Amino acid sequence: MPKIKVPRKDISLDMTAMCDMAFLLLTFFMLATKFTPEQQAVVDLPSSNAEVKLPEADMVTIAVQKDGAVFFSVDGQPTRRLMFDAMSEKYGMTFSESEKKEFENLEEIGLPFNQLKSVLNMDEDDRKGIKYVGVPIDSAKNELADWIRFARTSDRPLRFAVKGDKDVNYPVIESVIATFQNQNINKFNLITTLEQ
User: What are the pLDDT digits (tens) for 51-110?
Assistant: First the structure.
């Protein structure tokens, strides 16, 4: 008996909904993406084989460049505001409300406190041309210790990390660790890249 061939019918799919969904997802990801802010400290991290991940919130990060410049950053705008108000009171400087808001948006602090007022009044494009000398950490004027002390006054439990360049001189890192120990901070992370 011969086989009966069933005629094939063309199937048509309406792809309009799929295109709409693709554009909605694309728009969502474009709007929801948080870009990494441009950082002042350029650090070439050493490598290690540790796979412990840092928490994404409540971090205080001390970055040390190759030339020994130290940069301080802390997560959370309320913490930055409290810390900035305490530093202003200690050093006897007054700041306008717009300067305080500008400070809350800074990612890193890489200047002595007395030079901060002039930087806060600059445009973002003008700030890119500044040579950041770092936060003073010498024994005569250790502003890093003040930043850490006032950051710890917030109600949030902060975790500390050091992000040092692989070619930085050891005495600079030793000064940062001594500053931690003077503040009774004996637990902190060292940020590295994963070895291949």
Answer: 778 777 788 889 898 888 899 988 887 888 888 899 999 989 888 898 888 888 888 888
In single-letter form, the type of residue at position 86 comes to: A
Identify which of 135, 138, 133 has the alpha carbon closest to the alpha carbon of residue 171.
138
Structure tokens at 26: 């694309």
| The pLDDT of residue 27 | 92
Query: For residue 61, what are the β-bridge partners?
Result: 73, 161
Among candidate residues 142, 118, 130, the one with its CA nearest the CA of residue 40:
130
Please state, in angstroms and rounded to a whole number, the distance separating the CA atoms of residues 58 and 114: 26
Distance between CA 106 and CA 80 in Å, rounded? 9
User: Dihedral angle at the C-alpha atoms of 20, 25, 27, 28, nearest 10 degrees?
Assistant: 140
